[in-house]
Amino acid sequence: MAVNKWWGHDPNERYWLEITNREDIGTNLLAPKVNDRGEPYWSYALVREVRPGDLVLHWDKNHGPGIVGYSHVRAEAFASTITWQSRGTYGRKRGESRPEAAWEAPLGGYRRLKHPVTQARLREIEPTIRALRDHLTEEVGSPIYFPFALSDARPVRAAQGYLTKLPRALVEELPELRQLRQTAVSEPHEPEAPDLPALSLPKPRRSTGYGRQRDAERRQAVERYAMNLVLSHYREQGYEVEDVGDHSPWDITARKNGSEVHVEVKGSTTTREAIDLTEGEVRHAEGVPTCLVVIDQIDLSDDLQGHGGRWRIWNEWAPAREELVATAYRYPLPEGGREGRPSA
To answer: Which one of 25, 165, 206, 308 is most buried, counting C-beta atoms within 10 A?
Structure first.
């Protein structure tokens, strides 16, 4: 069936909402190719539209109800099978469950939200949700596959469906979802983002929902400030330290009494719930015991002097592959590219 891919032009529209009562939340997205009438159904067809690195939030009907956690899409959707019985009238008429053709997309890195977004919470901001829906519909047309049902007869509630499209603007309206906004950046190395205001009316579309640190000098000043703090700390602890970041996939080597510690340092002026990692940094931490130090909430003055900062440390840090979210690709160029400038 044809899908209104209104999000296709915006790489920051990377959010979906699974509405489910399953117990194995975060394993995959799995939906039959057709509904109980044997017809394509938009909420099932959306499984084919997710892409690696997209974030899937999970609305748990059993516990809440509300948004309890999130996962990321690990690979493109593929043809699969499902043994599942609908609970509606048509589902009951079909009798016993049996395997049927389905769409499946693998998920990884499931995390529970620190503060679930309950149905009661959404009802507190129902006017904002309505305004956002109307604004988006006017801007991109319909259907928009909105995740919540709105009517004059009943308070806001989850839509009748399995997978829905969660607009980025709605994610930005909920402080509870700040950690998702940092995880779902459309490309890596965007470390600085202002905290977004809570609960405002829909805003004009921006080029990015996350904010880019455009000033390379400021970014380098933050990184150098964080590095100097960590170097000074290890020196004070009696370590011999070496800054190796220019030629190694970790930042600092600290040696003391015959032992050696490898340290990865990340700095930011904002509150960090996610960080960018290179493949080299990941591979190194997988094979060599590494200490991860994140210093965020750094105050950077106009003359690029750093002050303060919150320290967090993960000893014996090893990032799990299933928790890494794709934000960029390396593409080998194919043969056949023509030399020269494009013609008019």
So the answer is: 165
